[in-house]
Design brief:
The structure holds 2 protein chains of 2 kinds.
Chain A (H helix, E strand, L loop, with lengths): L4 H30 L1 H23 L11 H4 E10 L5 E2 L2 E2 L2 E3 L9 E5 L5 E5 L11 E5 L8 E2 L3 E8 L8 E12 L4 E9 L1 E2 L2 E2 L5 E10 L2 E2 L4 E2 L12 E2 L2 H6 L6 E8 L2 E8 L5 E7 L9 E3 L13 E6 L2 E5 L6 E6 L10 E2 L2 H5 L7 E5 L5 E7 L5 E7 L5 E4 L9 E5 L3 E6 L10 E3 L12 E3 L4 E5 L4 E6 L7 E6 L10 E4 L6 E6 L4 E11 L26 H36 L3 H15 L2 H12 L3 H28 L2 H8 L4 H38 L9 H10 L2 H5 L1 H29 L7
Parallel strand pairs in A: 9-17
Antiparallel strand pairs in A: 1-39, 2-3, 4-5, 5-6, 6-7, 8-10, 9-10, 10-11, 11-14, 12-13, 15-18, 16-18, 18-19, 19-20, 21-22, 22-23, 23-24, 25-26, 26-27, 27-28, 29-30, 30-31, 31-32, 33-34, 34-35, 35-36, 37-38, 38-39
Helix pairs in contact in A: 1-14, 2-6, 2-14, 6-7, 6-9, 6-11, 7-9, 8-9, 9-11, 11-12, 11-14, 12-14
Chain B lengths: L20 E14 L2 E14 L3 E5 L6 H8 L7 E9 L2 E4 L6 H5 L2 H17 L1 E4 L13 H12 L4 H14 L16 H13 L5 E5 L7 H17 L3 E6 L2 H7 L2 E6 L2 E7 H6 L4 H8 L39 H5 L4 E5 L2 E4 L3 H6 L23 E13 L4 H6 L7 E13 L3 E5 L6 H8 L7 E7 L18 E3 L8 H9 E4 L13 H11 L6 H14 L6 H4 L8 H13 L5 E5 L7 H18 L2 E6 L2 H7 L2 E6 L2 E7 H6 L4 H9 L39 H5 L4 E3 L5 E3 L4 H10 L14
Parallel strand pairs in B: 3-8, 3-9, 6-7, 7-8, 15-20, 15-21, 18-19, 19-20
Antiparallel strand pairs in B: 1-2, 1-4, 4-5, 9-10, 10-12, 11-12, 13-14, 13-16, 16-17, 21-22, 22-24, 23-24
Helix pairs in contact in B: 4-5, 5-6, 7-23, 16-17, 16-19, 17-19, 19-20
The chains are: A alpha+beta, B alpha/beta.
Chain lengths: ~750, ~750
């Protein structure tokens, strides 16, 4: 069938018409684009639109609250910072500190060993005469040349008061120091005394009853006593004449020494006073064993387990010796060597309380993934507990006072895994990713019982407190030891009277720093790109810890959405009202117009506040309120336009052409109002955002959604903030201004297009 | 650009020794930088005005005549680029360095000096009557205060002296000093225009520029004002520039005329030279497009096409595309200025041939001879009997509460008109503004609902809707006067009737393309279902109004069209439904002179080709005479005279008709507007006289005129008038010019 030429022509015409419309739009665009205002406004709006689209990806943290992680905004406060008048760095790393509790004499001291072997006590402020930070020399540093010191350990021991009919105990603090020599080493044990002219606690502390014992070999590690150091409870080990008390059925105090000589590696047990050798056991291997650990208690005989043990691991085996006899009770063999740095970890209560048949030691083995096994302290039976994806660099447990310890913390260089309540099920579920960029975590975590914290320390001088209760933000605080390059393993301090826990570090810059075990709120944070969590805070945080950048970013979609929705609503209502009044005359039209006028003349802000209060703060209500308050202005202007267009001849012409009211409205009124509509839409969007910000700033209708106005709200109550944290004020202010001005600029650009009057160079 | 010395020989500067030049314009070009491109508003204009001389500048809109006036007053806007100079006496008032954009670049100090100098020249040396400036009075000040302002600003006189001078000025302008205490709204248009002229004369400037001084005034007032200006020329004016598009006005006021077209002066010379022996095709065509009363019903040719686009000028003669004489050379080479007679210059390649008539123009495509009158006299198609249309003026709130309906003032816009349109005729309604002619047109189409009387329409037999016919109104007529707007009959009536509005700039929706505009009636009557058919019908309608080729117009916007093209688009919209009755409401009054006759010819063509009945509403009795078969003269809502147009022209009986005919300015030396004897202005239709509506202005009025309504008297077949006098009495008046009244005694002023 042959196409009608008419149809051809018509199709060609329609194509031409389309081309023509495109050309026309191009021309209008050129006029718009020539306006400097229009261009500026457009650029701002495009930038803002792009940011809006990117907002979901750029917004950090929880989109509900934008709370920055606590590890960034909380830090432990420095309780004590004392420069040490001697060097602590031996063999490249600082020697650790040691502290003790419960025993009055010396419990207000923290003990630090110098690189030359001197032991000093640093006052914690417990006494009126020993202010915080006072350094007292205790054990002389005049040790023979060639001896290498290990950090001295302080531990409390109960001592028997012999004058009483029955045994009675007093607590004293003791220092145990090892000085490694090439062939013979020296182990020093001393009691800390602190009695001056005005009785106990006055004057300066001192060491007395100093015992020096030469052991035949090179010390491989610091000597240990059968009282675990740096914990809040002492072992029940009476001092003085250990042999005699053993005869009485009491557990004597032992000192264990691991040394190496030509014959091999030996584990020696000495009575503590006087330091006489009980037994010496040669370990089969040649590598450095783990630190010996003593388990069981003085009263162990009445429990199911008959014997206390001292455990030591070497290579792939764990040996349990009977302290009294030195017999090997059992030997547990593993599939891989024991991670010596981690050692054998035994929940604290196992060491001091009843050794039950179910009590276990936790042993981390070398390898990747890092296996962790439990070893029955009674029989030496080995059970696999878990395996971490990375090699295990640290392990700690809670006290285990009621069986299996509530918390077992496995540390790998990047992650901490929590085994809560013995539930090994899904290790990853309770994994806490450790902050990136702060070195690897290779020191045994420190369990801080009352604060519910495990403090994990990294190789580059940061420490993070991880809450054992985990939650969305498990890291409670951070400590930055800037500028120290490295720190010695942390030591827990417990105030003997208040029970307040602190964590003390000796740094490579020869400082002793004690931090609180709880964090302090650092908000508002200034802008930073190096927060502990690895997050960036280009705008800092506010007082409640909201990340301002995220809040600002997330405000884009909401401010746009409210602006557009309100402008749309205003335009819709205004057009309907204007059309209604423009083409319906009489009583109803007069009523509607008067109503519009009344609303228009009502003070806007007052109306806004009242209506917002009545409606209540919600996303939808805010849109409705702003629309309700905003439409009369636009409507009145449009009414004027409709009335003027109505009086133009082409409306008469349309009517004479037979056009009905609807056709006139649609084909004549609307196109002739279009420029003004565009203009008003632009103004309304800006106006709506201003109105929203006003409400938010005044806090009249607080929303849970982020808005720029809402970000400024705290300023309304506290002008000091502006000086204290200007980074808080500037971004929303600048953005809000730019947003509103962009629309004003755009409307000026539109003005150039629709208003030929100003079309000129 | 070329300086003053290098300019071409000035057409107006040669001749015998003459008084010193007041103003010299030397090779002046003005360009405006706009968004759409560079507009060349003036292109090498040179002229000289000597003391005591009046120069008329004749040109259509866009010819650059107002730009020239602004350049002389150095009021050019900032986007103007000027070359050439304007010197006023010894002072250069416009030049490339000091006018338009260049002025912005002057050093601050030089600019201040220049501004002060120009401000001093402006009212004291050169004053201007701006176009439409009678509407520019500040409504809250008295006339005296506004005239006194000129003295306050430019002289150091004290209050009493100023008052004296203002009084003197206002008397000179022919106004009663009473007007000094009036506010602008209390004065009629003519009085305001006189006050504006008085202001321009106040400081006795050496040069007065009058830009369209009579445009917007009714024809009778215009004639009187021309007479007064001629009087002033003799007594109070040194030199004057009269700018107008109306050759009649220019001819009556000017000594010499410069004809401008597209920013150039195409011809200049004395008035008589130009009128009698024009040497430029444009001037000739312009004169030819005037339907003059003498020429009556001879064939009048319009100028085809539209004025050139000032943004994209053609290389040759600007008028070449529309010129009937044009040869190839005209389109490529700018024409030289030739002095055909001493003092008579013409810019044309064939100036002498054109002047002598040796060259004949090729026939303009649109020229066609009108149908001889009386040839078409079908049955009545639309009949109004005692048709009235009153408007209620909105009174005060208290008035409407307590005064009752009677207190609301009525505007009797149409008051008992009997009218009978016969199928296929062109019927003209003539009257001044305020006479109710537009209201009559709209009422006849039911765009307004009549307040009284009957309106009946003869539906075509084939499609007549089922509705009762009114037998009394004559065979086949259906009453449509009180039909409901939505009824079927009404819609059928509306479909058969169409209107072309006066203002083509307002009657087309600026947001619509031509296609959309013309399509609109099809949409309204749901005839737009088939898009191909719509395009065809729209194209046909555009072709019918001689917009060729129609495809070029479909997607253009009204602002891209010339006034004539717009009015044709409006006509196309009216035609697309193929109506039977077309009301054209002053369709050419806002068009350029050269385009008017073309549109009138188009109406004639529509009548001829489609058999349309056309009601032509106009204030211009000459064009009515040219186009119409019959004429109705209206005055204050009533018809005062009606009859075949030939008869009305040859034997006008009503004094008002006579005045209207006399008031048409003609470019002849012997025309004397002083002969117009009627007085005052039309007034309003609110409190109409009890007797003859025209009695107040009638030079022949008798006591009975004011008391009793005049009877309708017939003077032969189909010719009647409304007057107390018999035809014989009126004819005798015409013969003697005297009756028993006291002509012109009530004229305001001394």
């Amino acid at each position: 069938m042959e196409p009608r030429p008419e149809a051809d022509e018509a199709a060609g015409f329609r194509r031409a018409r389309f081309r023509f419309q495109a050309l026309r739009m191009r021309k209008l665009w050129r006029i718009y684009y020539r306006s400097a205002y229009g261009k500026a406004g457009l650029y701002i709006l495009v930038a803002m639109a792009v940011l809006t689209l990117l907002a979901p990806f750029l917004t950090l943290h929880n989109p509900e609250t934008f709370i920055a992680p606590t590890e960034d905004t909380y830090s432990a406060t420095v309780d004590l910072r004392t420069p040490l008048p001697f060097s602590t760095v031996a063999n490249g790393s600082p020697l650790g500190a040691s502290a003790s509790a419960l025993a009055s004499s010396g419990s207000y001291l923290i003990y630090v060993t110098s690189a030359t072997g001197g032991v000093y006590g640093v006052g914690l402020g417990g006494s009126s005469t020993t202010g915080a930070g006072s350094v007292f020399p205790l054990l002389g540093s005049a040790v023979p040349a060639g001896l290498r010191p290990f950090a001295a350990e302080a531990f409390p021991l109960a001592s028997l008061t012999t004058f009483l009919a029955n045994y009675s105990f007093g607590y004293h603090n003791y220092l145990l120091r090892g000085l490694a020599g090439a062939t013979n080493s020296t182990v020093t044990l001393a009691e800390v005394g602190w009695t001056g002219p005005n009785g106990p606690g006055s004057g300066t502390p001192y060491a007395y009853r100093i015992e020096n014992r030469t052991v035949p070999g090179t010390l491989l590690m610091a000597p240990v006593a059968n009282s675990e150091p740096a914990t809040n409870l002492p072992s029940w080990a009476p001092f003085a004449d250990s042999q005699a008390y053993t005869a009485d059925g009491l557990q004597p105090g032992y000192v264990y020494v691991v040394l190496k000589n030509a014959s091999g590696i030996f584990l020696d047990e000495y009575y503590d006073y006087p330091m006489t050798l009980v037994w010496s056991h040669r370990l089969p291997g040649t590598s450095v064993p783990s630190e010996p650990t003593y388990v069981g208690s003085f009263f162990a005989a009445s429990a199911g387990v008959t014997e206390t043990r001292v455990l030591i691991a070497q290579n792939s085996s764990l040996y349990a010796f009977a302290p009294a006899t030195g017999h090997l009770l059992w030997q547990a063999n593993f599939s891989a060597p024991v991670a010596a740095a981690v050692g054998v970890v035994i929940p604290f209560d196992y060491q001091i309380g009843y050794l039950a048949a179910t009590s276990q030691a936790f042993v981390a083995l070398q390898g990747t993934p890092g296996p962790v096994v439990t070893v029955s302290l009674d029989t030496g039976t080995v059970h696999a507990l878990a395996a971490t994806p990375g090699p295990i660099t640290g392990l700690t447990t809670s006290f285990g006072s009621s069986g299996f310890p509530t918390y077992v913390v496995l540390e790998t260089p990047t992650t901490a895994y929590f085994i809560v309540g013995g539930d090994v099920g899904d290790l990853a579920a309770d994994a806490v990713a450790l902050p990136v960029g702060f070195g690897s975590f290779e020191t045994n975590p420190l369990y801080v019982p009352d604060s519910g914290i495990a403090a994990l320390t990294s190789s580059s001088g940061y420490s993070f407190g991880v809450s054992t209760s985990l939650g969305p933000y498990p890291i409670q605080w951070h400590i930055a030891f800037s500028p120290a390059a490295s720190v010695a393993p942390p030591v827990l301090l417990i105030d003997s009277f208040t029970g307040v826990e602190s964590i003390a570090f000796v740094t490579s810059t020869d400082e002793l720093v004690a931090y609180s075990a709880t964090g302090t709120d650092n908000n508002p944070l200034p802008p930073t790109f190096h927060a502990p969590s690895g997050n960036v805070y280009p705008f800092g945080t506010n007082t409640v810890g909201n990340d301002l950048f995220s809040q600002w970013m997330a405000s884009f979609p909401y401010d746009w959405a409210i602006g557009l929705a309100v402008a749309g609503g205003i335009m819709l209502i205004s057009i309907l009202v204007a059309m209604f009044i423009g083409f319906v005359s009489g009583w109803t039209a007069a009523f509607v117009e008067t109503l519009t006028l009344v609303l228009f003349l009502t003070p806007g802000l007052a109306l806004l506040i009242v209506v917002a209060n009545i409606a209540g703060p919600s996303f939808l209500n805010i849109i409705l309120v702003l629309t309700f308050v905003g439409w009369p202005f636009t409507a009145l202007t449009l009414i004027g336009v409709v009335k003027s267009v109505r009086s133009r001849t082409f409306i008469d012409a349309a009517r004479i052409s037979g056009a009905g009211t609807l056709q006139i409205l649609r084909r004549h009124m609307l196109p002739n109002m279009t420029p003004l509509l565009a203009y008003f839409t632009a103004l309304s969007i800006g106006g709506a955002v201003v109105g929203l910000s006003t409400l938010q700033f005044l806090g009249v209708a607080p929303l849970t959604i982020p808005t720029w106005g809402g970000m400024l709200q705290p300023l309304f109550d506290n002008f000091y903030l502006a000086a204290q944290a200007p980074w808080w004020i500037i971004p929303p202010t600048v953005t809000l201004t730019a947003f509103v001005f962009a629309f004003i600029f755009v409307s000026r650009g539109l003005d150039e297009v629709v208003n030929p009057r100003v079309r000129r160079h | 650009m070329a300086g003053a010395a290098a300019g071409p020989p000035s057409p107006l500067r040669s001749g015998p020794p003459a008084p010193p030049p007041v103003l010299e314009v030397d090779d002046l070009s003005v360009r405006f930088d706009t968004d759409d491109g560079v507009v060349r508003a003036l292109d090498g204009v040179s002229l000289t005005i000597r003391s005591g001389e009046t120069l008329g500048i004749l040109g259509e809109s866009g010819s650059g005549k107002t730009t020239l006036a602004f350049a002389i007053l150095s009021l050019l806007p900032e986007n103007a680029v000027v070359s050439g100079t304007v010197r006023f006496g010894e002072t250069t008032v416009a030049g490339p360095e000091i006018s338009g954009r260049a002025a912005l670049r002057l050093p601050r100090r030089a600019r201040r000096v220049l501004t002060a100098k120009l401000a001093d020249i402006r009212w004291k040396g050169i004053s201007m009557v701006f176009q439409g400036s009678m509407n520019a009075f500040n409504p809250v000040y008295t006339i005296e205060r506004q005239i006194a302002e000129a003295f306050l600003l430019h002289t150091t006189l004290n209050r009493t002296e100023i008052h004296e001078r203002v009084l003197e000025t206002i008397r000179r302008a022919g106004l009663d000093p009473v007007v000094l205490r009036s506010y602008p709204h209390e004065l009629s248009g003519g009085m305001k225009q006189r006050a504006v002229i008085a202001m321009a004369l106040a400081l006795r400037p050496r040069l007065v520029i009058a830009d369209e001084p009579t445009t917007g005034l009714d024809v009778v007032i215009q004639a009187r004002l021309i007479g007064e200006l001629r009087e002033l020329k003799r007594t109070a004016l040194d030199s004057m520039i009269v700018i107008s598009h109306d050759i009649g006005v220019v001819a009556q006021l000017a000594d010499r005329v410069a004809v401008m077209y597209a920013g150039q002066i195409l011809e200049s010379g004395s008035v008589l030279e130009i009128y009698k022996s024009a040497a430029n095709p444009y001037t000739k065509a312009l004169i030819d497009s005037y339907p003059s009363l003498e020429g009556a019903r001879h064939e009048v040719r319009g100028i085809p096409g539209a004025p050139p686009d000032p943004i994209a000028p053609s290389p040759g003669c600007p008028f070449a595309p529309r010129c009937g004489y044009a040869e190839a050379i005209c389109r490529t080479t700018p024409p030289p200025s030739v002095e055909v007679e001493p003092g008579h210059w013409s810019a044309c390649h064939f100036a002498r041939e054109v002047r002598s008539g040796r060259r004949a123009a090729s026939p303009a495509p649109e020229a066609l001879a009108p149908v001889p009158p009386g040839r078409v006299a079908g049955p009545p198609i639309l009949r109004g009997e005692r048709l009235t249309k009153y408007f209620h003026l909105r009174g005060t709130f208290a008035g409407s509460l307590f005064g009752g309906a009677a207190a609301v003032p009525l505007v009797r816009a149409v008051d008992g008109i009997d009218i009978d349109l016969r199928a296929g005729e062109i019927f003209a309604v003539v009257g001044e503004s305020g006479s109710g002619k537009t209201t009559l047109g709209k009422t006849l189409l039911r765009l307004l609902t009549p307040s009284g009387g009957t309106l009946a329409y003869r539906f075509p037999e084939a499609s007549s809707p089922e509705s009762p016919r009114i037998g009394a109104a004559g065979g086949g007529l259906t009453a449509v006067g009180d039909l409901r707007a939505g009824s079927r009959t009404f819609r059928a009536f509306r479909k058969d009737t169409q209107l072309i509005f006066q203002d083509p700039y307002d009657s087309l929706d600026p947001k619509m393309t031509v296609f959309d505009i013309v399509r609109e009636p099809l949409l309204a009557y749901r005839m737009a279902a088939d898009p191909d058919r719509v395009v065809t019908r729209v194209t046909e309608a555009l072709a019918a109004v001689s917009l060729a080729p129609p495809q070029n117009f479909l997607d253009r916007y009204p602002h891209e069209l010339s006034g004539g093209e717009r009015q044709r688009v409006a006509a196309a919209r009216a035609l697309v439904l193929k109506p039977r009755i077309l009301v054209a409401d002053e369709p050419v009054s806002m068009l350029d002179v050269s385009l008017r006759i073309g549109f009138l010819n188009l109406l004639e063509k529509l009548r001829r080709e489609f058999g349309m009945t056309i009601l032509y509403v106009t204030h211009d009795i000459a064009s009515a005479r040219y186009l119409a078969d019959r004429i109705l003269v209206m005055y204050l809502g009533v018809g005062v005279e009606s009859g075949p147009s030939q008869r009305i022209l040859e034997e006008p009986l009503h004094p008002y008709t006579k005045a209207l005919l006399q008031a048409v300015p003609v470019p002849t030396a012997d025309w004397n507007p002083g002969r117009i004897e009627i007085v005052g202005e039309i007034g309003n239709a609110v409190d109409v006289p009890a007797g003859c509506r025209f009695a107040r202005r009638c030079p022949y009025r008798q006591p009975k005129c004011a008391a009793d309504p005049p009877p309708r008297q017939s003077s032969g077949w189909d010719h009647w008038y409304l007057c107390h006098f018999s035809p014989e009495e009126l004819r005798s008046i015409r013969g003697s010019g005297e009756f028993s009244g006291s002509p012109a005694s009530a004229r305001p002023g001394p």
